[in-house]
Amino acid sequence: MKATKEQRAHSKGTRWLAPWKDSAERPVIYHCVTRVVDRRFAFGKEDKEKFRTFMRMQENFTGCQVLAYCIMCNHVHLLLEVPPLPAGGFSDEELLKRLKASSNEAEVAVVAKRLAEYRKLGVGADIAAKELHESITYRMHDLGEFMKALLQRFSRWHNAQHGRTGTLWESRFKSVLVEDGMASRTMAAYIDLNPVRAGIVADPADYRWSSYGEAMGGGPRGNGKKARAGLVRALVAHKGYGADARHWAGRVSKDYRMLLLDEGEEQLKEVRGADGRLEVKVVRKGMKQEVVETELARLEHSRDVALRKMLRCRVRYFSDGAVLGSREFVDGVFRACRERFGARRTSGARKLRGNAVAAEGIIWSVRDLQKGIS
Predict the structure, then answer these.
(1) Is 199 exposed, middle or buried (0-12, 13-18, 19+ CB in 10 A)?
(2) By C-alpha distance, which of 361, 329, 363, 362 is closest to 348?
(3) pLDDT digit string (tens) for 255-293?
């Protein structure tokens, strides 16, 4: 029995949200892509800096974490983790602290005043305060609300700066549910290699509006600490590391750079800059060229080298695959969302093909894409 028209529309049109999105045990990660209308090159340096500023503000307010990102001239990639709201909610102090991250002082002051008044009421105070909390917290820990607020806020700023009106974005943002571990590691690398695939830079560390560029060069605030913490979460959180920037230095950063560059060994060192601040810089180990060439030749047919080559190509599964991860992960999501498919389909996991064939058997997709995959 073929899927009905309604089932096909439901499968293609409804955003894939993790069935366990309210669980505190399993991470919920999405790859989000949004493009400028007509795909015109609209973003200059100031635009990219402002988008990153708004992204960090939204991150601090919502409690969602950007694991990897890349802001290009006409599109944006985000690898976003969306944890559930705390079971016990927020205290008034915590709520106001979150609100300060995205609102002006006057708005925060109004909320603070109302909360103080409610706490003095006695009877009915808890109900009134709870309603006020909920009028704010519904925008937190939510994929759709994160992207909606970020894109709308940037659109208003961009239009005002450039004297334009109307929509800035091509359509609704795309999102793909990504398993933590190999899938999130590969997706982070794919995102950070965007400027390399576009021919803008040869080394992804040289592109400042990406997670890897910020992690290596430092950001305007915090010396890239947020970017490093996000990448640690994307790369090794499944091993119990959590999201701590301190784990970046050493093996984690080295392995990730090797995945990105596919050439000679390097190491990170902390050096003190002219302004006295510590900076993380890449230092060559001084390997002889013949040693590097021999090692690369040995690895030429290995899966990791094949993955590195794959990541330098456009991989449609990463934006249109809907669900990406291990076979068990994809099949589990399929079973939880069985109503999306026709009765004849018995499993969710589909092998990657075309440009993504290097990840075949390691990463699976819930969609069996037919066009534009090579």
Answers:
(1) exposed
(2) 329
(3) 888 788 754 344 445 556 667 665 555 444 434 455 445
Give me the count of residues in the chain: 374
- In angstroms, the CA 71 to CA 167 distance is 18
CA distance 188 to 235: 8
The tens digit of pLDDT for each residue in 157-172 reads 999 999 999 999 998 9
- Do strands 29-35 and 266-272 pair parallel, antiparallel, or not at all (unpaired)? unpaired
- pLDDT > 70 fraction of the chain, expressed in percent and rounded: 80
Q: Sign of the C-alpha dihedral, residues 80, 46, 202, 75? A: positive
Name the 3-class secondary structure at 321.
coil
Look-up: residue for tokens 């990791």? 304
Contact call for residues 133 and 143 (beta carbons, < 8 A)? no
Q: Which of 76-90, 267-281, 315-329 has the lowest mean pLDDT?
A: 267-281
pLDDT tens-digit readout, 115-153: 998 888 766 678 888 899 999 999 999 999 999 999 999
β-sheet with 65-71: strand ranges across: 65-71, 75-81, 29-35, 174-178, 323-325, 364-365, 350-351
Asked if 118 and 129 touch (Cβ cutoff 8 Å), the reply is: yes
Select from 348, 261, 314 the least CA-distant residue to 72.
314
Q: Per the structure block, which two tokens stand in for 289?
A: 């060229």
Nearest by Cα to 166 from 155, 153, 157: 155
- In contact, 168 and 159? CB cutoff 8 Å: yes
For every residue of 89-112, which 3-state class applies, written as one string?
Answer: CCCHHHHHHHHHCCCCHHHHHHHH
Task: Count Cα atoms within 13 angstroms, Cβ side, for 134.
Answer: 6
Give just the sign of the alpha carbon dihedral 295, 301, 304, 305: positive
6: DSSP letter: H
* Amino acid at position 232, single letter: V
